[in-house]
Write the structure tokens for this entry.
Amino acid sequence: MTAPESAMCTLMDVFGQYAKEEGKKDTLSKAEAKKLLTEQFPGLLKKAKKPEVVDKLISSLDINGDAEIDFAEFLVIVGSITCACHGRCTKK
């Protein structure tokens, strides 16, 4: 597999690991999303000084308002984080 293909498989695997913990196996509950972000993006959440900022981020992931986060919604935040990191990394 190429590096991008491997990255795609990793994203699918990580999403699936957390989504299967409760409820539907193809969506994240807010609790599953919080756990995923806390464990998989610890640097991002450490910079959030207020817990309500993290809760607001999680709520913003639910783009269609169905109280669940599907894979496409998950990819939006991963893409946003990646873009933000890319901007910082290329400036250094």
